Amino acid sequence: xxxxERIQFNRKRLGMSQEQLGQKLLVSRQTVSLWEKDQTxxxxxxxxxxxxxxxxxxxxxxxxxxxxxxxxxxxxxxYKISEAELKGVFGATNSFGLVHLIxxxxxxxxxxxxxxxxxxxxxxxxxxxxxxxxxxVGAIIVVSNRKLRKMSSESVLKTDYKCLVYDDRFELxxxxxxxxxxxxxxxxxxxxxxxETAGFFLVRNLNQxxxxxxxxxxxxxxxxxxxxxxxxxxxxxxxxxxxRLVSNLLVFAAAASVIAAFSLIVFNALxxxxxxxxxxxxxxxxxxxxxxxxVYLMKRRLAFKPNLFVGGLCLVIIVTLSIVGVNxxxxxxxxxxxxxxxxxxxxxxxxxxxxxxINFVDNGSMEQPDGDSWVYSMGMVRFSGKNxxxxxxxxxxxxxxxxxxxxxxxxxxPPYFKPEYDYVIFYDIINEAYNxxxxxxxxxxxxxxxxxxxxxxxxxxxxxxxxx
Length: 468
Known about the structure:
- This protein is of the alpha+beta class.
- It is built from 13 helices and 13 strands.
- The strands form 3 sheets. It has a 6-stranded antiparallel β-sheet with strand order 8-9-13-12-10-11. A 4-stranded antiparallel β-sheet has the order 1-2-3-4, with helices on one face. The chain has a 3-stranded antiparallel β-sheet with strand order 5-6-7.
- A hairpin with a 3-residue loop joins strand 2 (160-165) and strand 3.
- The longest helix has 36 residues, at 83-118.
- The chain starts with a helix and ends with a strand.
């Protein structure tokens, strides 16, 4: 095997394209192609960098020499990797992450449904966007893994592996068509990351994992014992019974706190939503405790992921709910007469003509009636000339404007100052409904507008109405 063929083999072994390898070396794809065709040789600096990327020595790239270690090996294993085995390892190592992505997508989709149900449309779309993002990331991972598996298969399935085990180290040697193409030496005292699947040990070298089948290793193999010990050392162990009970309770409580926060939103939205915007923060200590307990377990090298991830996610959700707020009935901050007029137009879904005069009074200047109702603001808008004619035509043609207040709406009027009128309209801001009384009891914010043809005047009220 020539130097160019070794560069090509190791590039494919790592699942890299010529362009990707060139980017790592700061050379063009054409330069890598010339190396692999043996038309040119890499410079000394590039050979050094290639040896670091491929995890082999410069000599192994330039010369077809057998790497030998001092002394005879204690154990010697030879094996090949089948396509089914390679597929199984890829599935085992990637399925865990995909399951988490799908779980998060489902969770945010549920958040979308809840927020849409209670009327938080903008935030509901944000939740749906996050859910779609998780699904897209999952799809990208699936496609990338298939591509990587295909590229890896081209080199892995052609390779013959030899594992030589010594007292203090082991060596993996790679062959293709009977010729050595590379090797790696691992010291038992300095083993890096080692993973374990049902049938393989996966030993990491730089950004590449190498597969060692368990079935070829003897039961008392020095290599099996060392690799198992390293896996056990890197594995987060199950907490003892007492800590495990606390861990499970905190995970359950964190999830329950989010359910409680959502229930509070639904309850508030269905009952007027007065003053509940900060209440989800009451549940904040529960997921925070789960998160901190997860950090504690991680430092003790105990299984921490459920507490850390569930606690962290629930913490983010509750903080987000608090920021969004659920106080749907809180009146806007005091604003100018012109802005108030625009606000009424927006609520009533109308495009009124230009008024001659706007008189606006906010609740700070008004004497409030006895009882639980509250008038936030009221306005008096006068029209004249053609604008008065346009206003009269508008309310006549709009079927939402009533000429008489129905019996069921008698108690839904503002608590005082009921003007003379020819047309009237009521708008329930919470339920976004016109001329109807909410089915459920509670306090609701409403807009009432009365229009008098004789005075060409529109009287508006922003107020609370109590439904029993």
